[in-house]
Amino acid sequence: MNKQALTTQKLTLTYDRTCIISDLEIAIPAGKITVLVGANGCGKSTLLRGLARLLKPRTGTVFLDGKSIAKLSTKEVAKQLGILPQSPVAPEGLTVRELVAQGRYPHQGWLQQWSPEDERLTEQALVTTNLMHLANRPLETLSGGQRQRAWIAMALAQNTEVLLLDEPTTFLDLAHQVEVLDLLYDLNQTQGRTIVMVLHDLNQACRYADYLVAIASGRIYAQGTPSQVMTEDTIEQVFMLSCRIITDPVAGTPMCIPIGRFQARSQQSYRMM
């Protein structure tokens, strides 16, 4: 049986009295890349916050490596699980190295200050993300892709087995999106990190995911490999969008071709000729 990094049991998450996630049960496979997809407002980001213990469940339980995450100390959670929220903000003037070093804070204490191990892991994170030459640059002087890599480096310095990322490619151009996703893929392949991320681009999700979870109205509509999940019926039901699924000529994964109203009318006119 495959090991599960994160699981939930009848998880219900709410904001005030509004239910966002209802009785959800999910098992995130360890050492794999899992991507959450779904329409805006379906609960993807809320689920990620619930998995990271940033949002207290109304009911149900999240298990981290088989243990109830609610019963673990904040420091214990931070040593096992790192999260990169959507559009993170750093204090002005912070350098890349200073940001990355913050990933070591969960490992500090009254009796354990900055150590050679902290230095080693900070340097390693900078090298892994190809940021060593920018280490002393203020974060605000970097490009969008470089800044995102710096935040990922901070999560790497935290040295957790599990990484949660909420839309890590948001506001990036296509080249920087691929750069960030390639980096995460390499981390998974070379270091065995369990990665869970929210993505909007379905074709990128299929290219990079081992496991795909489609969420609709706070519930799981479909889950499995990209080939199992990415079907025309799933897209119709989850996104209310007609499409055709073909094979990606580069990756060999499912590729979604959306059909808008104009294309649908054109197809209908063509059939009537």
TrEMBL record:
The keyword Ion transport applies. The keyword Ion transport applies. It comes from the Bacteria. Its main location: membrane. InterPro entries: AAA+_ATPase, ABC_transporter-like_ATP-bd, ABC_transporter-like_CS, P-loop_NTPase, Siderophore_ABC-ATPase. GO terms for biological process: iron ion transport. Residues 6-242 form the ABC transporter domain. Pfam families: ABC_tran (PF00005). GO terms for cellular component: plasma membrane. It is found in: Cell membrane. This is ABC transporter. It comes from Aliterella atlantica CENA595.
